[in-house]
Every structure is written in C-alpha cells, then in structure tokens.
Automatic annotation (TrEMBL):
Pfam families: UDG. It comes from the Bacteria. Keywords: 4Fe-4S, DNA damage, DNA repair, Hydrolase, Iron, Iron-sulfur, Metal-binding. This is Uracil-DNA glycosylase. SUPFAM superfamilies: Uracil-DNA glycosylase-like. One of its GO terms (biological process) is DNA repair. One of its GO terms (molecular function) is 4 iron, 4 sulfur cluster binding. Residues 35-181 form the Uracil-DNA glycosylase-like domain. It comes from Paenibacillus rigui.
Amino acid sequence: MTAFKPEILREEAPPAFAAQCQGCELARQRHRVVWGEGNQQAPIFILMDNPGAREDKEGHPFVCGTRETLQLGMKEAGLELSQVYVSYLLKCRPVRAYDKPLAREACFSHLRFQLEEKKPCILLGLGNIVVQTLYPEQEADVKGYRGRWHAYEGIPSVFSYHPLAVRRRPVLMKYFVQDLKLVAERNKAGLC
Ligand code: SF4
C-alpha cells in the first residue's frame, strides 16, 4: 500500500479588484490575498474559515496540517482532488488578533462573487465558524448541521468538522469521512 502523500494544489490568483483589498485590518497583516486553490471549474466548493500557513520560513510551499487532514479524509471518502476548489471566508491569513466579525463581514462580498462566478454544484462548509457565518440567525453549529443536506442560497450543501478539529480529535474522523462520502456520492451520481 502506498503511503498517503498530500498534494500542493495550484493557487488561483485573486482578481485585480481583490489583490490589493483594504477591506479590513487583515490587509496590514497579510503577505498576500489567498483567493483559493484547486480546480477552478470544480463541481465542489470547499469553504473553511481562513487560510493557514502556506510557505515555510524559507518561503517553500507546503501543505499545512489542515489541508493534509482534509485530503486524507477525502481519500477515505473516495473524493478526488480534481473535483474540488478550496477557499475561505477570509482571503487573508491572520497572524495577530483582529476584529473577527468585522473582517468576516468585510470579506463576505468576495465569497459571494466567487459563488456567483463558479456556480458550484455542491458547497462543503467545514467548521463552526463557516456554519455560523452562513446561518447567523440560528443556533448553528457543525454538530447540528452535519450528516444531511442543506441548501445554502440554493446550492446543495453539506457541513462537517474543520479538519484541524479532526486532527486534534481523531475520533471525529469517522464523522468527517461520513460527511465527505455524502458529497462524493452525489458528485459521482452527477446530481448537479
Ligand atoms: S480579509 Fe478579505 S476584506 Fe480583509 S483585507 Fe483580506 S481580502 Fe480584504
């Protein structure tokens, strides 16, 4: 059996209007805007809270623990990397404390733009912050939303644990894989 080896997905350059975005205080912390990565025409749009470290101290790209665990779960669920695009509520990586609600509100227009542009068949939201941002009026959390289909703005959607939570609590992996299987099965069935 070959050992699991995570892949560095190709990053998509941000559109000109976003590359120098000054929409929130993260503009002063970031190295660059991280628009997303993976297949730009993918049927599945994976949404997490914010980008983590992407380069080591020497500037070499690497796959962080979050993306490694995501890819491991995908492999277990039979979900191919070519089928996904990965992006974030915030397009800049925070390195210091910041006003989270203000930043999420400021950055939301970029996510809207992406969803309108890419028109994904399936949205896979990972982590409580994503659930609570997309469903702010409700007592929303992953526990209450995972394991079944939803429709966010008309897009068939599944929610699950953040890969970092799965990494910290391996007991969550089986639920994570169950949720990813829902997505893989719908995608394979071509229900777009
Ligand atoms: S996090 Fe979003 S709104 Fe804030 S500066 Fe970056 S791209 Fe702009």
